[in-house]
Amino acid sequence: MIVYQKNKKKFSSDVLTNDIDGIITRAIKSSTGKDIAESEINAFRQSLHYMDTVLHDNDIPDDCGISIEYHIPGTSKRIDFLITGSDGNRDNLIIVELKGWSEARLTQRDGMVETYFQRKLSRTIHPSYQAWSYAALLTAFNATIEEESINILPCAYLHNYQPDEVLTNEFYSYYTEKAPLFLKPDAARLRAFIKQFMKYGDQRNLIIRIEKGKITPSKGLADSLRSIMKGNREFIMIDDQKEVYEEALWLSAHSNEKNKNVLIVEGGPGTGKSVVAVNLLVELIRRGLMAQYVTKTSAPREVYFDKLKGDRKMPELKNLFVSSGAFMKAPQNSIAALVVDEAHRLTEQTGFLKMGENQVKEIISTALFSVFFIDKDQRVHIDDYAESWIIEEWAKKLTAKVTKLSLSSQFRCGGSDGYLAWLDNLLQIRETANESLQSTDFKYDFRVLDSPAKLRDLIFEKNKINNKARLVAGYCWDWKSAKNPGAYDIVIPEFDFQMRWNLKTYGSTWIIDPNSVNEVGCIHTCQGLEVDYIGVIIGPDLLYRDGQVLVDPTRRSKDDKSVFGYKKLLKDRPEYGKGLLRAIIKNTYRTLMTRGMKGCYIYCTDKALEEYLSAGP
Question: Which residue, among 295, 412, 280, has the nearest Cα to 336 in the 3D structure?
Fold first, then answer.
């Protein structure tokens, strides 16, 4: 999405009004519905005046394209400043990352520096790394760039920063070579850099062609796993992902029996928790550390086993990707690093027999360094136990230092933070400002259908593209086909609709098996995984009455263990139990409705809920 797009001459005229910051903020408000912080408005005002000065040269054509706050498709990332034109041989696009910094400090973390934000010293991404990574991201998501051989040229301009030995330090040379760095005295150098590639204006509407161009199919983690495990860079770490990744590597390198460390990483769906976790596992092993990837649910592990079974022997894979219950008898400090994904699914004790003492305690005790990737809004089982504060408490008891970071960059659901906020508002999980989907700044295919048959047919059609569309449902129907393969499970008579839950023969690989589109999955077979398009059958456990989204745990199947024991809980602790059941059922549908990278389609058994959700967009 383009917030502001004009040529150089018109941009200069806008700057001359002394209201360029107002023009941009009003454009952002109009496009996204979002208000802009005063600090960001001030940054626009200052930085854009500096860029106008740099561009004030007759050798830079007046009809060069200028785009500001360009939204990279499929992500929540925005590029500060784009210049488009030609050098006579090919079309060029210059990315300028603008910063108002006046000081920074070296770190020993790759691509990371320290600088002051609101008078507080904070660690952040080196500007050249940021510009380079955004260029890589734009190239990865847009097929037009490759097909038309468009040249992408990233750079960073820090107009308040006097030269020193920090940002230009040799430690950052890999990134400053990829994306040249221009500081306060370097306006003439930046101008010369631009002139080198902008000899002619943007006469072919380059940014519009990119904006309307074909979006490259998103790489899923599972599909890229084989290459990642071989040490190849399949994903560029962006902003907070890079910060988490480098902090984890630093902590792991400095952890020992007398200095145990725990890193807690909070992040919602699609923020890259699993991508960072798997890449971290690979790098830790490459550095010679004993490391394992840990999940409570088997579905992600089984998918990874299936993808890697041709490259590695199963015993080796099962030693890399392990269950959260594997550490009940593990010796203390016996593993260098444990990477715990989907940590919100950890249970206090392990399995039906309630073995062990406490999974969080056992993991922290076993590892010199442990990292927990967690999303409190994906608690979907009555036994789900781990929360950030619980992990912190156990870390303190076991004398481990705690570091907390968060992930917010969105790479699922069309790359929109707005969709997630809107969904929270719609399901009445929490009140947000996103009351309408139309006000969110993204392209995402969300539909409410009035028939489960229409939903099924739409998913079947989408699945023909690349086997990345699946049907899921709330666990409100008994699994009859588990014992009687000829029986149907999800039966909705008024629509002559009948389908089966996923076959046991698929195990936890239902989400990738080419034949499994004919079956319906549930939360237990898709949490932690993703597809391009998800179809969600909302069962009678979620309904709408008198302006309220309500839950009814009595409508869950007797085969569903996620609310097992809820009657006793309601009797013993009624208020806590009601709140927990509300959270579990709503979180279940929130999680199901955020499995789709490109689209989410809904059918509701409750007609009032259907009408409410249909009015929501």
Answer: 280
